[in-house]
Amino acid sequence: MKNNRLPPGLVSNLQQVLLNRKVTETETEQPSTEPSVCSDNVETNQDDDDSGKPVVFVTNADGIDSPGLRFLVQALVARGLYSVFVCAPQSDKSHSGHSLTVGESVAVYSSELDGATAYEVSGTPGDCVSLALSGVLFSWSKPLLVISGVHKGSSCGHNMFHSGAVASAREALSSGVPSMSISLNWKKDESQESDLKDAVSVCLPLINAAISDIKKGDFLKCCSLNVDVPTSPLKNKGFKSTIKSPWRSSSNWQAVSASRQPSAARFMSNQQSLGMQLAQLSRDASAAGAARRSTSQQKNVEVDSVGVSKKSDFNRTVKYFIQELVDKDLEDANEELDFRALENGYVAITPISLAPSTDADTQRATSSWIASAIEEPQ
């Protein structure tokens, strides 16, 4: 690898992976004398569960029933080296970004998932990681590693901004926990569920290398890894350190006939819908009680309705639209860009940092504009 942006210890492991396609538990390495690319702002101690095994936490923005989650958990459990814990959304939240549920209840249900301790959560991908690391749900609060994956669809370029996959890993990073997100460059009418399983097998050496470095204190300290696997995982050309590209999917909005739409409750989460129904029942019961008391005290009082008056939907125009994300070409041929490397058949590994990336020229231009705007008379 040339011009890599990964720490020396992990690079050494990846080079061994490319040669042997596996990392053995007996592998030994000389400590690197090169300086680390990141500042040391992450603690190295992790929690174990009651079995004494280190904890690996897994989530998936595609939802608790996603095959990519199932394949990854199966592979980790099969190794028998870790205690695997899972929290994932009840439904697909892959494009929810880094949204969090604040001030509202989040329901958590136990789930069966291939030997792991698993829960499905009514909230967002960010909620799942935040809750897991809070110490409220599990007996631990700092796992060895957080893995978000394997997701359908790449998280390259600007797609990272609305990617629930990347947000999950970023939430862990913000809590000081090593993390990575893994996505497959899923192609409609081409990709198959078995490709997700192949993506897991391709990334297992990378996961093993990361865990090995975490134990030695050599893993990334200030960034997470965003891993994008090519459409045909088993035909990949190897791992490649990449940089975030300006590529993004284009939005395709289409109007949908109202006759094809289900009831509005269909678009709410189960919790939201149930909560609104319970709230309405409570209001109706209170109003009914008040009506009965009023009737018993004043026989001539007539109550027209026990419900709460609200604006009728019959007086409002409702339109329905649906959005699809469509891949588009990127003219930039820079081989170091994540999207270009992915399209060329490489497993693209892009570091995601919490540090601001505004360049000096942009910062100066912004400061100059603010100064001039304040000075101008209004």
TrEMBL record:
<comment type="similarity">
    <text>Belongs to the SurE nucleotidase family.</text>
</comment>
<dbReference type="GO" id="GO:0008252">
    <property type="term" value="F:nucleotidase activity"/>
</dbReference>
<dbReference type="GO" id="GO:0046872">
    <property type="term" value="F:metal ion binding"/>
</dbReference>
<dbReference type="Pfam" id="PF01975">
    <property type="entry name" value="SurE"/>
</dbReference>
<dbReference type="InterPro" id="IPR036523">
    <property type="entry name" value="SurE-like_sf"/>
</dbReference>
<feature type="region of interest" description="Disordered">
    <location>
        <begin position="24"/>
        <end position="53"/>
    </location>
</feature>
<protein>
    <recommendedName>
        <fullName>Survival protein SurE-like phosphatase/nucleotidase domain-containing protein</fullName>
    </recommendedName>
</protein>
<dbReference type="InterPro" id="IPR030048">
    <property type="entry name" value="SurE"/>
</dbReference>
<keyword id="KW-0378">Hydrolase</keyword>
<dbReference type="InterPro" id="IPR002828">
    <property type="entry name" value="SurE-like_Pase/nucleotidase"/>
</dbReference>
<feature type="domain" description="Survival protein SurE-like phosphatase/nucleotidase">
    <location>
        <begin position="56"/>
        <end position="243"/>
    </location>
</feature>
<keyword id="KW-0479">Metal-binding</keyword>
